[in-house]
Design brief:
Layout lengths: L9 E9 L8 H10 L3 E10 L10 H14 L3 E4 L5 H11 L2 E3 L1 H12 L3 H16 L25 H36 L4 E6 L5 H9 L16 E7 L3 E7 L9 H6 L1 H8 L3 E7 L5 H14 L7 E6 L10 E4 L5 E5 L8 H12 L3 E7 L5 H9 L3 E6 L5 E8 H11 L7 E3 L1
Parallel strand pairs: 1-2, 1-3, 3-4, 5-7, 5-8, 8-9, 9-11
Antiparallel strand pairs: 6-7, 10-11, 12-14, 12-15, 13-14
Helix pairs in contact: 1-4, 4-5, 5-6, 12-13
């Protein structure tokens, strides 16, 4: 399908600093991306411009520098820390006589390596095909079916048109499958809502430690590594929170600055777990010097997917990498939890995290002594099933008193299930 040079494992990296703030990229993050893709960096070519050139993105002088570096290091591929237009990518490949891949292509390649589930593979393939559809170039000219000359004129289809038609058909097929997956996710989500089980979604910049925190809290074995996009497929686990009861914790794909729109669209079904969460836990690498910019990028993606109105608890992770810092819980002027400082790797501050989550999820708490009537046996059993009874005693009149601690919504629900009249129950706070 492509008349392009093969890509290799020895890469020249190209990074250009632009005067416009929104066009700038981080060269160190670019190196981490390349490392995560499994490519060997042999040289980094840097430069500065006010704006890219239409033909090559870089100037002709910088192009000659890249060509010289490619020859010197015998590189197989040139990687750009920027988004290239299809024409710029083709022009660069023709001039450099090697494969040229932009930032979006690198991210897509990493996602293709990380995908494990059927849904994840479909989402990556959809993003790749949509990215690829704008970069089809003429190939297989020996299969050309439109020719000039006597006896050769007439209707036909070029190989390029055939490739585009096949791509559109495949994109349509994958989109239909992902729609089916979305319906299945919606059913599971509705079932959790009917059971009144809150959902807590981990979000954050890539490599902030979300999967490590997820494994520590849920005692799971989700793959976690010190690399970008270690997690691709979302994972859901049930956890039990004090005063709240069961909740669903979701580990999601990490965000990155200038996350490709095609990738966001392809992973829309997965990101809906975040959009429909009861609470977002924004995991932040407190040891990262660029953490302020990373927080802004995460907030930008949350706004893009419509999750910016959900309550957020910021969790500053990797506290063990800082000197003289102890775990703590920061509150706002109204006493609402805002930030928790923890170390998922060392297991520091997790009790504070549990308390903050429980406090944010618990709208109203019933905490007091309930005097049970003689017909309250069923309610007593239901309260014990909910683990809401802290202690039990009998007064001088022989009445049973239960010391309770549970959410008011759960208390009201259990009273209704018991068939008792809530107005006749004596609850001493």
């Amino acid at each position: 399908m492509f008349d392009r040079p093969d890509a290799g494992e020895r890469a020249i990296l190209v990074h250009i600093d632009f005067s416009a703030e929104d066009e700038r990229e981080d060269p160190n993050e670019f190196k981490e991306l390349v490392k995560s893709a499994g490519v060997e960096m042999v040289d980094l070519v840097v430069g500065s411009r006010h704006f890219p050139t239409p033909k090559y993105f870089i100037g002709t002088g910088k192009l000659e520098e890249v060509e010289a570096s490619k020859q010197l290091h015998e590189a197989d591929v040139v990687l750009f820390n920027h988004a290239l237009s299809p024409s710029q990518q083709r022009n660069l490949e023709a001039a450099l006589e090697c494969r040229v891949i932009d930032r979006t292509g690198i991210i897509l390649d990493i996602f293709a390596q990380r995908a494990r589930t059927h849904e994840g593979k479909l989402q990556v393939e959809l993003a790749q095909l949509e990215y690829m559809s704008t970069r089809l170039i003429r190939g297989w000219t020996h299969l050309e079916r439109q020719k000039g000359g006597i006896g050769l004129r007439g209707p036909g289809e070029t190989q390029l048109e055939s490739d585009r038609r096949l791509l559109r058909a495949r994109i349509k097929t994958i989109s239909a499958r992902l729609d089916k997956v979305k319906k299945q996710r919606d059913q599971g989500r509705k079932a959790r809502m009917r059971a009144d089980i809150p959902t807590v979604s981990l979000v954050g910049y890539t490599n902030a430690g979300k999967s490590t925190l997820f494994n520590t809290v849920t005692q799971s074995g989700v793959y976690a590594a010190d690399q970008l996009f270690a997690t691709l497929d979302p994972t859901l686990r049930r956890i039990d929170l004090p005063d709240v009861g069961p909740a669903i914790l979701v580990d999601t794909v990490g965000f990155i600055r200038h996350l490709p729109h095609k990738l966001v669209d392809a992973f829309r079904a997965t990101l809906e777990e975040t959009c429909n969460a009861t609470l977002l836990i924004h995991v932040i690498d407190c040891n990262d010097p660029d953490r302020r910019d990373n927080i802004e990028q995460v907030n930008h993606v949350l706004a893009e997917i419509g999750a910016d109105t959900i309550p957020v608890l910021k969790v500053y992770n990797k506290l063990d990498l800082l000197e003289d810092r102890e775990p703590r819980l920061d509150r706002d002027e109204d006493g609402v939890p805002q930030r928790v400082w923890v170390s998922a790797q060392a297991g520091l501050g997790l009790d504070l995290l549990y308390d903050a989550i429980a406090e944010l999820l618990g709208e109203e708490l019933v905490h007091g002594d309930l005097v049970l009537p003689h017909a309250g046996g069923k309610l007593r059993a239901l309260l014990y099933e909910q683990n809401a009874v802290q202690s039990e005693s009998t007064n001088e009149q022989g009445m049973t008193s239960l010391s309770l601690r549970l959410q008011k919504a759960d208390y009201d629900r259990l009273v209704r299930m018991s068939g008792l009249n809530p107005d006749e129950l004596e609850l001493i706070s």
